[in-house]
Amino acid sequence: MAFGSFDQKGHGAPLAEINMVPLIDVMLVLLVIFILTAPLLTHAVRVNLPEVSSTAAEPAENRIDLSLDDSGTLYWDGQSKSLQEIEALLLEAGRRQPVPELHIHADRQTRYAVLADIMAAAARAGVSRIGFVSQPAENAATP
Prior knowledge:
There is one protein chain. By secondary structure, this protein is α/β, with parallel strands linked by helices. Among the domains are: 12-41; 63-132, Nucleotidyltransferase, domain 5 (2-Layer Sandwich). It is 34% helix and 19% strand. The protein has a 5-stranded mixed β-sheet with strand order 5-4-3-6-7. A two-stranded antiparallel sheet has the order 1-2. Strand 3 and strand 4 (74-76) form a beta hairpin. Helix 2 (83-95) runs parallel beside helix 3. The protein is rod-shaped and about 110 Å long.
């Protein structure tokens, strides 16, 4: 390891050279640490979702059918109502015993904000049993 160099006249000048070996050693150790810890940092949750086909449910006597079309129009048991009227009807339904089930028939293009408003109004009214009614897929396998 040279600390200096001499030119032809005998004058000494310091040698400005960086020792790279310790730097390379540290970088290799860090590389090994990252290689070992990288697989531990990926959190992939594997979930086996059930594969079922929907079947027609038995009609309940104590239920409310609330329908929404793609334009946002609300229908309470087939009659067109405003959101304020729906909230008042939900409050009335929440006072009945037993509390009826709310079945929501929503169009595929219905905005989520409208559904969130309806579910929040139902929760405030005490109607806690809410179901989303859907059409079974045509190509769904039967059990």
